[in-house]
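Entry for the shared binder. Reason: the reviewer on the internal report wants the predicted structure included alongside the sequence.
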Amino acid sequence: MEKLKAGDQAPDFTAVTDEGTTVRLSDFRGRKVVLYFYPKDNTPGCTTQACSFRDAYPEVDGQNAIVLGVSPDGSKSHTRFKTKYGLPFPLLVDQDHQIAETYGAWGEKSMLGMKYRGVIRSHFVIDETGELVDVQYNVSAKESAEKALARLGAPAGR
């Protein structure tokens, strides 16, 4: 899948949340969305990223926006992760990694010299009409929320 860029229309998808409800990205039209992809619940980098979005959430909410976290973990794992860290936003199940693939957030990675395919830590800021305002691949877990928040009020392509 080709990488997405600011100005592209965000691909719509359907997913199950940590609460077992089904949502579509298009359900959030009229609100800004920060969609972020992370590899695994309860791992150090993923916890850092999730807690950064949690801590920034009052400011995100004040911008008429919502955060949606996406990983291949199942809803039970997401529920435990969300409860443990008090995450105020939905975590979406992407066990077949179709959403990640659609967004270009699934690809080759390496660890200790071994190559494998997995989630590429990424985030996407989507405006009220469904247009991508910001696209960040291989984003730092520590900087993801800060960068996304900085782009929430910005027009596409700037």
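Summary line for the report: The CA atoms of residues 51 and 85 lie 7 Å apart.
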